[in-house]
Amino acid sequence: MARRGPDATENSLDRLPKAPLNRETLGEMLSFTRYVLPYRGRFFAGIATLFFSAGCGLLFPLLAGALIDAAMRPGGAVLPLIGAISLNHLALVLMCSVSLQALASFNSSLSFNRVGQSALADLRGDTYRRLIGMPMAFFGQRRVGELTSRVSTDIAQLEGALIDSLPQMCRQSVFLLGGITMIAVTSGKLTLVMLCTLPVLIAAAVFFGKRLRRFSRDTQDRLAETNTIVEETFQAIASVKAFANEDFELKRYATANGRVLAAAFNTARWRAVFVAFFIIALFGGIVIVLWFGAGQLQAGEITAGELTRFVLYTTFVAGAMGQSAELFSQVQKTVGASQRVRELLREPVEEGLGSQKPNQDGESLARLQGEVAFENVSFRYPSRPEFSVLSSISLQVRAGERIALVGPSGAGKSTITALLLRFYEPESGRVLIDGKDSRDYPLRWLRGQMAIVPQDVLLFGGTIAENIVYGRPGADDEAVRTAAKLANADDFIRTFPEGYATVVGDRGIKLSGGQRQRIAIARAILKNPAILILDEATNSLDSESEQQVQTALDRLMQGRTSFIIAHRLATVRNADKIAVIDGGRVVELGTHDELNARADGLYRRLSSLQFGDTEPRKEPGLFSAKS
User: Fold this and answer.
1) Which residues have CB under 8 Å from 215's CB, separation 6+?
2) What is the rounded CA–CA span in Å between residue 509 and residue 514?
3) Which CATH superfamily is domain 16-186+335-357 in?
4) How many CB atoms sit inside 10 A of residue 36's CB?
5) In the sheet where 436-437 sits, what is the strand order?
6) What stretch of H or E contains 560?
7) Which of 78, 142, 290, 544 sees the fewest Cβ atoms within 10 Å?
8) What is the pLDDT of residues 20-69, one digit of tens each?
9) Which residues, 6 or more positions from 41, have their beta carbon under 8 angstroms from its beta carbon?
10) pTM for the structure as a whole
11) Which pLDDT score is estimated for 163?
């Protein structure tokens, strides 16, 4: 499968697009400082110790040069503000400076990490809260990979900027400005010689940096292709083996792997050239400075300590300027990541969802009776505004009634239940529940009065008990077992060595389809909804599993308003009401006998297509007459 972990995250960060730096984009990035404000005391302590550490670092060349001068002069060296100082005392001061620098660096690193991790944890929480509160229309227009990237890759980029890039920028700024100041004070002539060598290093860093990043991205893209092949192969491993195509997949992977190797070799060549050139340019510049400085030393214009100090400060300046291009690139990526996260945080959420405090408005409301009415409801999906899914549909369902929705695929059956759950709002018309517009109920409370059992049940990767209790978080073990018994699930659960603590695996892969369905039914029973939605709940089950699921569903529907979406007409013959949907309209409405008696009706035609001219056999259990 595609690799996940630090390396994969790093590769994702390398491929992040860069944004232009201007007032607007920088403002977007600075808006995230509000997440640092709760930790501002530790943050400013980290800033202070960082500058103190950088200052101690700038003292090192000064003290090292003085140490050499002290060794060559009987009276020791002379330091500004201190005066004459002996060799041993200088060595002691130098060691104290290094120790203070290490201590300050430890404190600043720890402070930035703690502030950064805390602030980014808050941001991740807000981002996830915002995502989970988005309406279904939002998810319908975006890919899951894009959304998870906002929570992982983009925020990881912000984390790197806060923990690494910001401290580096502060430290390198001190080294750059302080180093230039100190070399200018040390020797003006040597400063001019050094400045003449820097443009070559800067130009080389920019030239090779751009190409290395491009070649590195190319290598990562090729590597991603191989990961895709691995993921596809393992996901379809049954098909691979059934068709005996192991050799074909090996050849496909070898071809992609060869492209990765070629791209990696290309990157390696350019990296080797860059390293060689940089060594020549850097040490060549140092040789020139040393040669010129040695001439000054020979002429008595500077001391050996001053030459040493100058060379060390020169390396500080060169290092700071060498990192400037990479830091600028990181800032561009951070600005781009901050824009994408900010766009998400500005998206409107569903009422009462995604906020800091849950919506509690429905706590005092009485339980729904379950009477539902669709009044001239029309609807188009936001992702397909040109196509009308429902057209002035009207439908009445009494409390406790079982209504089956049948019709061709794409007729609008699932859309009706989506509007009932308020996944979407009608374009026109109203959905009434107990005589009140559904939009007048608190959204979270309203959905708490409903439950759905879908055709394809996707369980969470935890235990069986955790999946059942999802219907009513906080329910005790006895309530979970009771729900499982009513769903005909307790028997098979007890056959597992770990019982209710059995981990179901990713998407419930360790359970069969019938077992997953019964877990979903147990979850719905535990929730005790007033309105129940069954979306092809038995369509893909074998006969034995279907019978067990049907019995459980019949128990679940007792006393509840039930909407049943079904393609298999034999399972809906005993529903209280059957609505035939076609082209977004209710074209027929009645009982099985009434609709089957219409010779030219759509229901009769669909029935004939499924069963020929024979009357479909009665299948007890799912929609048998209410007891």
Assistant:
1) 263, 266, 267, 270
2) 12
3) ABC transporter type 1, transmembrane domain (1.20.1560.10)
4) 18
5) 390-397, 372-379, 428-433, 436-437
6) none
7) 544
8) 455 666 666 667 778 888 888 888 888 898 889 888 888 888 788 777 87
9) none
10) 0.65
11) 78
The closest of 553, 368, 530 to 457, measured between CA atoms, is 553
Q: What's the token pair of residue 410?
A: 């794409």
Cα–Cα distance, 290 to 432 (Å, whole number): 87
How is residue 73 annotated by DSSP?
A: S
Interstrand relation of 402-406 and 577-582 (parallel, antiparallel or unpaired):
parallel
Would you list the DSSP string of 200-252? HHHHHHHHHHHHHHHHHHHHHHHHHHHHHHHHHHHHTHHHHHHTT-HHHHHHH
Q: What pLDDT, on a 0 to 100 scale, did the predictor assign at position 432?
A: 92
Q: What is the distance in angstroms between the CA of the first residue and the CA of the last residue of the chain?
A: 51
Q: 368: which DSSP letter?
A: P
Which pair of structure tokens corresponds to residue 540?
């893909």
**Would you state the torsion angle of the CA atoms of residues 52, 56, 57, 59, taken in this order, to the nearest 10 degrees?**
140
Q: Which helix (H) or strand (E) holds 580?
A: strand 577-582
Is residue 228 within 8 A of residue 221, CB to CB? The reply is no
Q: Report domain extents, the chain.
A: 16-186+335-357, 188-301
C-alpha dihedral (141, 145, 151, 153), degrees to nearest 10: -130
* Residues in the chain, pLDDT under 50: 1-17, 19-20, 354-360, 614-627
Q: Phi/psi at 404 (nearest 5 deg)?
A: -100, 135
Q: What is the pLDDT of residues 398-418, one digit of tens each?
A: 988 889 888 888 888 888 988
Structure tokens at 341: 């996260």
* Alpha carbon of residue 428 to chain centroid: 35
Contact 318, 289 (CB under 8 A): no
Collect contacts of 296-299 with beta carbons under 8 A, ≥24 apart.
Answer: 296/187, 296/189, 296/190
Instruction: For the beta carbon of residue 431, count every other beta carbon within 10 angstroms.
Output: 20
Identify whether the C-beta of residue 559 lies closer than 8 Å to the C-beta of residue 400: yes
CB-based contacts of 585-588 (< 8 A; 24+ apart in sequence): 585/390, 585/391, 585/392, 585/393, 586/393, 586/394, 586/395, 587/407
- Residue-level pLDDT at 431: 92
The three-class DSSP label of residue 107 is helix
Distance CA 446, CA 277 (A): 69
